[in-house]
Amino acid sequence: MEQLLEGVLEKTxxxxxxxxxxxxxxxxxxxxxxxxxxxxxxxSTLQPLSQEEFIYILEGNGLMIGAFTGSGLIxxxxxxxxxxxxxxxxxxxxxxxxxxPQVIYQEISIVHPVYRGNRLxxxxxxxIMDEVKNLDQTFTYVACTVAPFNIxxxxxxxxxxxxxxxxxxxxxxxxxxxxxxxxxGKDEREMYNMEKVxxxxxSKQQELLKAGWxxxxxxxxxxxxxxxx
Length: 229
Known about the structure:
Blueprint: E1 3-8, E2 15-20, H1 26-39, H2 51-58, E3 62-69, E4 72-80, H3 89-92, E5 103-111, H4 120-131, E6 141-146, H5 151-159, E7 163-170, E8 174-182, E9 193-198, H6 202-210, E10 214-218, E11 223-228
C-alpha cells in the first residue's frame, strides 16, 4: 500500500500517515462518512456518496487517499473520472463535447469532527492533485460542486485556485456552485473589473457568470468576490 506522507497533527500531536485507499478500506470510508453526516447541522451542505459510487471510484474510475492515525481512518478525499452524460459538469461550464473527457472531478472531502483544525483537508487536496499525474489518463480540468454557505468547502476550493464558473441546480434540484481549474496553468486572467455580491443574491451571481465573470474568493462569510478579465 503506497504511503504518500508521514506527519504529526497540529492540535493533538498524534503521528499520522496518508495513503492511497483501496477496496479493503471501503467499510472505514463508509463509517467515516456516516459519522460526518450525523455531525452536520445542515445536512444539505454535503452530498454523500453511496457505497456503489465509492466502489466505482476504487475500481479504477478515479483516486482516493486517506489520513490514518492509530485509531484508523480520520479523513479522505476522492477524485472521480466521470461518465460522459448530460449531467457532466463540463457541460454546465460551457465546454465542448470533445473536451469532456479531459475533466476530472473533486468528488468528496471528509474529515472526522474530532480532527478538524489540523489542515487535513488542505493537505489531502495538495497530495491528491499531485497524484493525478500518475493516472493513465491525462486531464486538463478539475471541477467540483459546492453548496452555497458551505464556507469551509468554498475556502478550500479557492485556496486550490479554483474559480466559480456556474451556479445552478444539481442533485435533485439543489443549488450548487460549480468550480473549475485548468491543470495546464492557462487559467490566468488579468483582473479588469471586480464586484462583490452577497451569496444569497443568486440572480445577480448568475447574471455575472453568464456574462463571463468568475468567482475567485470570499470576502466574508457571505460575500463572493467576482472578477471579469
